[in-house]
Specification:
Blueprint (H helix, E strand, L loop, with lengths): L8 H10 L13 H9 L9 H11 L26 H16 L6 H20 L6 E10 L6 H9 L6 E12 L2 E11 L5 H8 L6 E11 L1
Keywords: Elongation factor, Protein biosynthesis
GO molecular function: guanyl-nucleotide exchange factor activity; translation elongation factor activity
Subunit structure: EF-1 is composed of 4 subunits: alpha, beta (alpha subunit of the eEF1B subcomplex), delta (beta subunit of the eEF1B subcomplex), and gamma (gamma subunit of the eEF1B subcomplex). Interacts with elongation factor EEF1A1.
Length: about 220
Amino acid sequence: MGFGDLKTPAGLKVLNEFLADKSYIEGYVPSQADIAVFDALSGAPSADLCHALRWYNHIKSYQKEKGSLPGVKKPLGQYGPAGVEDTTAAADEDDDDIDLFGSDEEEDEETKKIKEERLAAYNAKKAKKPALIAKSSILLDVKPWDDETDMAKLEECVRSIQLDGLVWGQSKLLPVGYGIKKLQIACVVEDDKVGTDQLEELITAFEDYVQSMDVAAFNKI
C-alpha cells in the first residue's frame, strides 16, 4: 500500500489514478488522511493530473481548519492503493529503526520507579553481604618444664586465653622423652585479628607451667 514518492511524477500519477473515482483519501469527508497526503506534496499537481489537482485545491481550502478535521494521521505508506512500493515509508521505517535502536519506547514513570527500587534493594543486599574472612588453622606444641608439671592445669591455662577471632580445637598429650609430655592443641584464627606471635606471648606468660611454644603446623583455610 502507498503512493510511492509523491514528490516524483510517478508518485503523483499513482495519486491521480487513485482519486479518479474518489473525492477523499479515506471515507466521504475531509480527514487527517487527506492532510497527511497533502503535506507530503511539494506543490500543486500539474493540470494533466486533473483528479489529483481537483483534490489538492479542495483540501487546500481546509488549511486553516486542518487541525480540527476528523481522524488520526498515520504513516504515509498506510494510505493509497495496494501493491505500490512506498519509498518514503521505507525511509521512515529506517529512521524508526534507528530511533528504536537508540532509545526504544519511553518508559513510564511506574516502570522506572520499579527498576530504581529493585536496584536499591540489590545494592542494600550486596552491602550487607559479609566480606570473605581470611582464616588459618594452627597446631601448637606447648612444652612444660618437666615431668612433674600438671598438664591438665597447663591446658586449662592455654584455653583460658579468649580473643576475638580465636577458637580452640582438639588437643592431646604427646611424649617428648624422659617421661615428659607436651600439649598439642589446635586452634582456628582470623588472620586480621590473631597472630602466632601474639599467641606465643600469651601462652608463655603462664611461666609456672609453660617452658616454650612452637608452631607445629599452619594452614590457610
